[in-house]
Q: What sequence folds into this?
C-alpha cells in the first residue's frame, strides 16, 4: 500500500523551460511535505517543503504547490537547468521532523 | 544544516556475515533515523534511533536483524546481521535538529552481499 505516489518515473525537459514534477498521497493525516533531489552515489538533498496550512511555498527557482482536497502536490522548477538533472523524491510525514514516507522518485533530465 | 558522515561508503560482504554502519553528525541532533533503499525502490524507514533507549522499529524490521545503537546525540550505528543477497541496498542515516525542521541525509552506505 503506497501512501505517496510519483506516477511518472521520468521527465525530460529542455533547458530554460519549466519542469513540473507531480506527487499524490493517500493518507489524509499527512501535514508536512518535502521534496528531495538525489544525484547518483549521494544522499538525498533537501530542496523545499510545505506545511498543510499553506498551498504554495517558493524558494528561488523552486515552487511547491499543495492541493489538499486532491491530495496532490507538485514541484515547479523555473527555469530548468542541466544541473537539475537528478532523481526527485516526494516525501510526507504526519508531523514535521518525524518519519518520512517517500515516493519512488522521478528522474528529471534537462537537456541543453 | 548538519554535516553527516557515514562509514563505510560501500562494502561487499559474504552471505551470513554482519556489518556495522556508522553515522556521525557534526552537531547534536534530537532525531536520527535509518533508511534503506533497495535497488529501483524508494527509501524505506527502518527505525528511529533514540538516544539512551531502544530504537523504534517500523513494521517489517526487527532488532535482531538490524540492531541500532545511539550512545549520544551525535553518533549512531546500524548493524545488518546475518546478511543475505536480499540485504543488498543503500543504507542511509538522516537527522532532524528538531521536529519542525526537514531531515538531512548522509551519502549512504552501498552494501552488496555475495
A:
Amino acid at each position: 500500500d503506497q501512501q505517496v505516489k510519483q506516477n511518472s518515473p521520468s521527465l525530460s525537459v529542455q533547458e530554460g523551460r519549466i519542469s513540473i514534477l507531480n506527487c499524490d498521497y493517500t493518507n489524509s493525516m499527512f501535514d508536512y511535505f518535502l521534496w528531495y533531489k538525489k544525484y547518483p552515489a549521494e544522499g538525498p538533498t533537501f530542496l523545499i517543503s510545505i506545511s498543510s496550512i499553506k498551498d504554495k511555498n517558493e524558494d528561488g527557482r523552486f515552487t511547491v504547490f499543495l492541493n489538499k482536497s486532491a491530495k496532490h502536490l507538485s514541484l515547479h522548477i523555473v527555469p530548468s537547468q542541466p544541473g537539475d538533472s537528478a532523481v526527485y523524491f516526494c516525501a510526507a510525514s504526519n508531523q514535521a521532523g518525524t518519519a518520512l514516507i517517500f515516493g519512488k522518485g522521478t528522474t528529471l533530465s534537462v537537456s541543453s | 544544516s548538519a554535516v553527516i558522515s557515514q562509514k563505510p561508503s560501500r562494502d561487499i560482504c559474504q552471505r551470513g556475515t554482519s556489518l556495522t554502519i556508522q553515522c556521525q553528525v557534526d552537531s547534536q541532533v534530537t532525531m536520527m533515523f535509518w533508511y534503506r533503499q533497495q535497488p529501483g525502490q524508494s527509501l524505506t524507514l527502518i527505525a528511529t534511533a533514540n538516544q539512551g533507549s531502544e530504537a523504534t522499529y517500523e513494521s517489517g524490521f526487527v532488532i535482531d536483524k538490524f540492531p541500532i545503537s545511539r550512545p549520544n546525540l551525535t553518533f549512531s550505528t546500524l548493524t545488518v546481521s546475518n546478511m543475505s543477497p536480499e540485504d543488498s541496498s543503500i543504507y542511509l542515516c538522516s537527522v532532524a535538529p528538531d521536529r519542525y525542521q526537514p531531515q538531512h541525509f548522509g551519502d549512504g552506505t552501498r552494501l552488496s552481499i555475495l
Remarks:
- Chain B has a mean pLDDT of 93.
- Residues 9 and 109 of chain B are 4 Å apart (CA to CA).
